Amino acid sequence: MFTRMRTVAVGALLVLGLAACGGEGAGGGGGAGAGEAPGDLTVGVSMPTQTSERWIADGNAVRDQLTAAGYQVDLQYANDDIPTQSQQIDQMVTSGADLLLVAAIDGTALSGQLQAAKDAGIPVVAYDRLIRESPNVDFYVTFDNFQVGVAQANALLRGMGLQNADGSPGPERGPVVVELFAGSLDDNNAFYFFDGAMSVLKPLIDDGTVRVKSGQTTIEQAATLRWAQETAQKRMEDLLTSSYNDGSSPDGVLSPYDGISRGVLTALQNAGFGTPAKPMPTVTGQDAEIASVKLIDDGVQSSTVFKDTRQLAEQAVVAAKAFLDGGTPEANDTTTYDNGVKVVPSYLLPVRTVFKADIAPVLVDSGYYTAEDVARGRQG
Predict the structure, then answer these.
(1) Which of 110, 191, 283, 351 is the most exposed place for a label (fewest CB within 10 A)?
(2) What is the C-alpha end-to-end distance of the chain, expressed in Å?
(3) Molecular function terms in GO for this entry (predicted)?
(4) What is the pLDDT of residues 74-118, one digit of tens each?
């Protein structure tokens, strides 16, 4: 079962994360900004896209918290274009950024930029997405991504009645029919999400409790390039045409992200699902995007996995401050995240699954959304 998230104050996180382990910062130096005032230091923040409300929220949270700590911030969005992100990071390096905080579009595409940062003595913190195939990644802040997948699979089972809220066996015994969706293969997180989910689902697939009617059970078959809603919708339409043209229906769909979930749901609604005669299958999600929270509140989407980006931004600021003060941020995982060249010291945050009954206590009471946001399906 997934780890339940507890509200953590900014101050507590700062105390925890600044318990530095000692040692050198990126590039073998003692921290690019050691001895300088925060106002004289610039943090380059590279985010992948503004097409997802999740990444907009991340960018705003990181910028606001770094600014509140006194740092200058250069926040750039790359609009899911790899050359654009590469150029933006190049510019940050040549403009004299003191630290880079990077959420990569393609985790293997930034080796040249990271080498330039290394040569300039600029620490690099990977934000939520692991940067691969480079020795020049100094730290990684993220959520426990394997547990995200575990949480999604358990939510799928719970939504279909195979599991109770406490993890015990539910009233449904199966077999149930599901389809699997995965994220973009150029995002390392997609593999952790899928592997976590399959650690729960594969034994049930093997014993016949869960059946994937299309037969598409590998991440390569289930992948959704760039996590695009339209791509997910098209694949779901194709699955309905090819595997459910006999009048049968899927009982559930494993979706790793709310945008993919909305694409899946659109395809299902267009095919007549969501009526008393043809109920909507259980559909999971991730990121608690407000449009999907509204769908959960309306009984259309079953669940989402909430990753509190405020806490991720807090921990990113903790890591940045540690490096810029000449130290090294504390990791709580030094074994899991091998980027193909090195194991990157990491700080993992917990996650929380949200069903309809959890919207108020988890999302509204914590101030992440207002009740009015949920009612209208958008913020503001």
Answers:
(1) 191
(2) 34
(3) carbohydrate binding
(4) 999 999 999 999 999 999 999 999 999 999 999 899 999 999 999
Instruction: Convert the pLDDT of each residue in 328-371 to its tens digit.
Output: 999 999 999 999 999 999 999 999 999 999 999 999 999 999 99
Pull the structure tokens for residue 25: 């910062």
Other beta carbons less than 10 A from residue 377's beta carbon? 15
Quick one: which of 369, 301, 6, 364 has its CA closest to 155?
Answer: 301
pTM above 0.90, yes or no: no
Are 154 and 163 spatial neighbours (Cβ–Cβ below 8 Å)? yes
Q: Is 337 within 8 Å of 130 (Cβ atoms)?
A: yes
Give the distance, in angstroms, between the CA of residue 143 and the centroid of all CA atoms in the same chain. Answer: 7
Residue among 144, 105, 104 at smallest CA distance from 125: 104
Two tokens, residue 198: 């399959």
Quick one: which of 85, 139, 91, 133 has its CA closest to 116?
Answer: 91
**Is residue 61 a contact partner of residue 53, using CB atoms and an 8 Å limit?**
no
Q: How far is it, in rounded angstroms, from Cα 96 to Cα 199?
A: 44
Are the beta carbons of 208 and 175 closer than 8 angstroms? yes
Q: Which residue has the tokens 């780890």?
A: 3
User: Do the beta carbons of residue 268 and residue 274 sit within 8 Å?
Assistant: yes
Please state whether beta strands 99-102 and 124-127 pair in parallel, antiparallel, or not at all (unpaired).
parallel
Q: How far is CA 34 from the centre of its chain?
A: 32
Count the Cβ atoms, other than its own, within 10 Å of residue 60: 14
Q: Are 251 and 176 in contact (CB under 8 A)?
A: yes
Report the alpha-carbon distance of residue 142 to residue 160 in Å, rounded.
29
Return the CA Rg of the chain. Answer: 21
